[in-house]
Specification:
About 25% of the residues lie in helices and about 30% in strands. The chain has 16 helices and 39 strands. It has an eight-stranded antiparallel beta sheet, sandwiched between helices. The radius of gyration is 30 Å and the shape is globular.
Length: about 650
């Protein structure tokens, strides 16, 4: 067995590989960029080597740095994970040339499947069906419409365009080639006939060094947005036992055609008429490999390591058991077309449920960087049936708290609850065509609970001194010596009203006109981000954190981000553009202009005196002075409007 393994990757896959290696007694070495110095995968390994730099090009994609890290740490093997350099034959060859064990397929197999055009040609020769198309981008009319333009070296939807007719070809072709060149360093593209309502089916294969290849059933990855998978399951509800035998046989032929060794995935497109076609082969372990592990009981990373060490595959493959579904949690905003988000995870909490596995690359305090893929974690469930697995995954997502960065949890729940997913009627373009985003206002009950949780946290929040010690720690929850400022809490411009209950401390009468929530509120001491409160005896729990004026609240109904309005509003917020506002209390020394004067941006207009210092208000823009209220010698308050340049 391998003695010491360099994991040439980051995030949840690096932590997941380390978990199996530790179980097998293999020491692990992480690599990390500057932004990842405190990342989860760094702490998951026995050792870690800094790659120095921030971007992927400087670090995780730098082959000399990776090999130097392996040498410095005394590793005898390298595992590439997925993404980054996992499908780069250059890394595989460099590792082998350095005298190390490469945990992956042979370099020539990676090259054979690395370009989609070459892979299609090999599959045709091996008798594996491929989508009708052409390797000549000028053959659009012959291929027929609608069609897909695809990047030869592509993946993840980049360099891919859907074309409905001849008029769209020139622009789509140029756009796809530009994107492919920028993403993959090659502008080579090819054409495939578009198959509407197709299912994305993939077969997990393993090949050993003795020439044996086995298939470990199939996965259904049809729930995609922008050609990227978000929910995967195994086995596919759309594949019968007879069809399974056919696609597994095709997948084994595909792997044998390139002398495949290690773990890999043959991706297929299943048409509505039952025909299936080869799409590509991923020469690495997949993001969604845990669902196959769940239905087989095999640890695929373990078998990657065993095969790399020269062990043969078992004589029999494991039996298929139950159903598994995986959801990918991304730092992205579905309401903004899935725009990636960056920031700090202020609260990360996951439930303990039967059949649930979490592969996470973050924890509380983790920084989601702009430099890398926005996937945060994968939630995987197993159950005896697909419906039970679906319900368990819904429960797992509902009770997962990921606060501080907007994410796609609401979209995942919307997909899992949709009748089309329940009945397995979804396809690769279903999310876009049905508009399943999960975006929009949270349910009224969820919003009401979040606003009450924000009030409860405000009332229980301990006052602390400069050393962080609680002031008056023995004083009862919610106690105030004055109600003047705290008779209401304004959230997103709408006040939640409260007053102490007549019978004593720790209970309040509350009313939220926005959501209609009202009654007797009683509080329990908070435990970190966890908070519990009762409204008229109905106990609710939440997790809540503050980030300056934002309040992030997690309940089982929804995750809500609220804005806490300041107790003393800045009157400038509602003032017209070009307003001249007193920055602090003071006295008007001079007024340099009169109402109706034309002024230019930067021109001195009003001079104030405050704390023995002069402050000059200048024209914010070119225009004409209007609404001039400043008078020499007059006293003014902070935020007072003195004039407008319009």
């Amino acid at each position: 067995m391998i003695q010491k393994l360099l994991i040439a990757n980051r995030g949840e896959i690096a932590a997941r590989i380390a978990r199996t290696a530790r179980r097998l007694g293999v020491d692990t070495v992480a690599v990390y960029s500057d932004p990842d110095a405190e990342a989860v995968h760094v702490r998951a390994c026995d050792e870690a080597v800094a790659l120095r730099g921030a971007t992927a090009t400087e670090t995780y994609l730098n082959i000399p740095k990776l090999l130097d890290a392996a040498r410095r740490a005394g590793c005898d093997a390298v595992h590439p994970g997925y993404g980054f350099l996992s499908e780069r034959a250059e890394l595989a060859q460099a590792v082998i040339d350095a005298g190390l064990i490469w945990v992956g397929p042979r370099p020539e197999s990676i090259l054979a499947m690395g370009g989609k055009v070459n892979a299609r040609a090999r599959m045709i020769a091996a008798g594996v069906p491929v989508v009708p198309g052409s390797h000549d981008p000028n053959d659009a009319d012959r291929v027929g419409y609608p069609l897909m333009i695809k990047a030869d070296a592509g993946g993840g939807g980049r360099g891919m365009r859907l074309v409905h007719g001849p008029a769209e070809v020139p622009e789509a072709l140029a756009s796809a080639q530009r994107e492919a060149l920028g993403a993959f360093g090659s502008d080579r593209v090819f054409l495939e006939r578009f198959i509407a309502r197709g299912k994305h089916i993939e077969v997990q294969i393993l090949g050993d060094t003795f020439g044996r290849v086995i298939a470990l059933y199939e996965r259904d990855c049809s729930a995609q947005r922008r050609h990227q998978k978000v929910i995967e399951e195994a086995p596919s509800p759309s594949v019968s036992p007879a069809l399974r035998a056919q696609i597994e046989a095709a997948a084994v032929r595909a792997a044998e055609a390139v002398n495949y060794v290690g773990a890999g995935t043959v991706e297929l497109l299943l048409a509505e008429d039952g025909a299936f076609y080869f799409l590509e082969m991923n020469t690495r372990i997949q993001v969604e490999h845990p669902v196959t592990e769940a239905i087989t009981g095999w640890d695929l990373v373990e078998w990657q390591l065993r095969i790399a060490a020269g062990e043969p595959l078992p004589a029999e493959r494991p039996a298929l058991s139950g159903a598994a579904i995986e959801a990918r949690l991304y730092a992205e905003d579905p309401a903004a077309q899935g725009q990636p988000q960056a920031g700090t995870i202020l609260d990360w909490s996951v439930p303990t449920l039967e059949g649930l596995r979490i592969d996470a690359g973050v924890t509380t305090g983790s920084v989601v960087s702009v430099y890398y893929d926005p996937m945060l974690a994968k939630l995987i469930v197993w159950a005896p049936t697909r419906e039970e697995a679906r319900q368990r995954l819904i429960a797992a997502l509902r009770h997962t708290s990921c606060l501080g960065v907007r994410n796609n949890k609401a979209q995942l729940l919307a997909i899992l609850r949709h009748p089309d997913f329940v009945q397995a009627r979804h396809h690769t373009r279903w999310i876009e065509t049905e508009g399943v985003t999960g975006a929009g206002e949270p349910p009224a009950a969820a919003l009401g609970a979040a606003r009450l949780a924000a009030l409860a946290q405000t009332l229980t929040r301990p006052r602390r001194d400069e050393r962080g010690q609680a002031l008056l720690p023995k004083v009862a929850l919610g106690w105030r010596n004055s109600r003047a400022r705290d008779a209401e809490l304004s959230i997103d411009g709408q006040a939640v009203q409260w007053c102490p209950a007549a019978e004593g401390l720790g209970a309040f009468e509350v009313n939220d006109p926005l959501t209609g929530a009202s009654g007797r509120l009683t509080l329990e001491p908070p435990d970190g981000a966890a908070l519990a409160f009762r409204l008229d005896g109905h106990r609710r729990t939440a997790r809540i954190v503050r980030d300056q004026d934002r309040i992030w609240v997690h309940t089982a109904e929804a995750d809500v981000c609220l804005t806490l309005d300041p107790p003393f509003p800045d009157r400038r917020v509602s003032l017209p553009p070009g307003s001249l506002v007193a920055p602090m209390p003071g006295r008007v020394l001079r007024v340099e202009v009169a109402e109706g004067d034309a002024v230019v941006a930067g021109q001195a207009l009003i001079v104030l005196e405050a704390m023995k210092t002069e402050h000059t208000l200048r024209a914010p823009q070119d225009g004409v002075v209007g609404a001039l209220r400043a008078v020499a010698g007059a006293l003014v308050d902070a935020g007072e409007l003195l004039g407008v340049v319009g």
